[in-house]
Here is the input.
Amino acid sequence: MANELRYVGLDVGGTTMKAAVVDDDGRPAPHVSLPTEPERGQEAGLETMCETIRQAVVAAGLTLDDIAAIGVATPGTMDLKTGYILDPPNLKPWRNVPVRDYIAHKFGKPTAFQNDANAAAMGEYWSGAGAGVRSLVMFTLGTGVGGGIIINGEVLEGEHSHGAELGHMKIEMTKPRLCGCGKRGCLEAYASATAVVKRTEEALAGAPPSILHQVFREKKLTAQRIFDAAKAGDPLAEKIVDETAAILAIGAANLMHVINPEMVVFAGGMTESGDWFLQKIRNHVPTYAFPVPAERTKIRFAQLGSDAGFIGAAACARQLIRGALRR
Amino acid sequence: MANELRYVGLDVGGTTMKAAVVDDDGRPAPHVSLPTEPERGQEAGLETMCETIRQAVVAAGLTLDDIAAIGVATPGTMDLKTGYILDPPNLKPWRNVPVRDYIAHKFGKPTAFQNDANAAAMGEYWSGAGAGVRSLVMFTLGTGVGGGIIINGEVLEGEHSHGAELGHMKIEMTKPRLCGCGKRGCLEAYASATAVVKRTEEALAGAPPSILHQVFREKKLTAQRIFDAAKAGDPLAEKIVDETAAILAIGAANLMHVINPEMVVFAGGMTESGDWFLQKIRNHVPTYAFPVPAERTKIRFAQLGSDAGFIGAAACARQLIRGALRR
Here is the structure.
């Protein structure tokens, strides 16, 4: 035990931040969480990060002396080279926050800094769906569509910290939907949970009465309720879910033709609908991808849920000490 | 001179193969070329490869003892890990050809094997448009659309040798054009030289008389003639060229949001139309890409022409001896 290295992974979200100590094999101790409260400003935010890290160490029954390195994941925009959060839409009014150096100096430990979607992909690569693969592309389906690409144990960060913004691949030119980013035709405008609800609302307008109409009248339409209606046999919901699977297959195929990874992972709320939906995505892949990657690329749902972020942040911390996970 | 390492780069095409000795700084000696004649079979093909390599060494005024390593680039399909050409559409009837080991044993030299589009990207990275950048994505616009991705001096080969098949990203769902690969909606079905001619022929059918109609009646319509007509002010040709620039900007933006490279390079016949066309592509990029990569990503035309393949093959040979060009 005394020789085993341990890391703290911290995942900062717009609402809460979560941290845990993670051992050298990717196993987390119990995690702690604190409210982010970005509106209190970035100095308060940095102090909450430090407090979450301290509490995570206590929750693991350890002291800071037991910690080899710290990893911090945050939403963008960011500059990964300098370790700054720049102008994060989900952490307003923070701006130009020197996260990495602040944490490193506060604790006197090597500190890694990573985009939250990249960190989540790293978590799945280390000890989730992708354990053992050489390369992995992950799509995270939520309010938006996030992405992470890991090749030979390294995060593809990109030259301007914009690597793996997979939600913003253009997949439509003729009738391109408006994306939350302000551009048109992005994958996110079709395949995020928000976009699935929007596509359903539009389809409901001209469709015959169905379970979904009843849901829509009685409660808020959500991606989960749409998926439930599809499972219950509602034809309109089935159509929406199948189109969503086809769109995600296009996303996967495009990445098979760019990165050609060993595995494509989907994460986020929609994946909780189970293997039924995973199989639909897989069924569409051969329509869009070349035979070899279509046959050989493993397609999986994520396994770590919302723990992927802090586990991946810890993986990035581990890299500072141990080098790349696999080469 | 005696201490300087030299490499032979060989680029095998469907019609001819070209080779040259390249020095340690990426400067080629005069190249030689021989007909490929794939119809003569793969044993004859392998022997022609060896003969082209031998002639290249003679053309450089050297002997084989002066050569540190050999690099061979061929069209796919292929298995880069084992060094085999598998089932190449452009080299029929070759099948399962152990190119790398054959050349390595024949000459007793370390031998690298690479996809031709990847090798061309490596050539531009080493001593062409991308000299000095850390990461580069290249689109080669010809009969099809090829691609190559270089990050920190290494070719992104992919898990199944399908990395950087950039022509087969899907960019259209509503009215997806049929691609030469048999799938629909691929970038190649819009932006290859062949596709530009096809889009023009379709547009001519319903358009008022123009320079292009006259070209079409008198000679074969080619991408070059379409670009020339656009330069001469033909409105239909201008429209086609501008749409092509927008489609290439979508391709570039998608790669900015996946790889986020320091530079995007376009190569192939269409780029000979000059900076006029390059500027059109650049003008469309901010419509599709996030502000930071749109502003900062260098967009260039290739500089090495058809020498890029053998220079890049030599770069891959150099890596066997020297390790990655830049990290």
Remarks:
- Residues 83 and 100 of chain B are 5 Å apart (CA to CA).
- Chain B has eleven helices and twelve strands.
- Chain B touches chain A through 47 residues (CB under 8 Å).
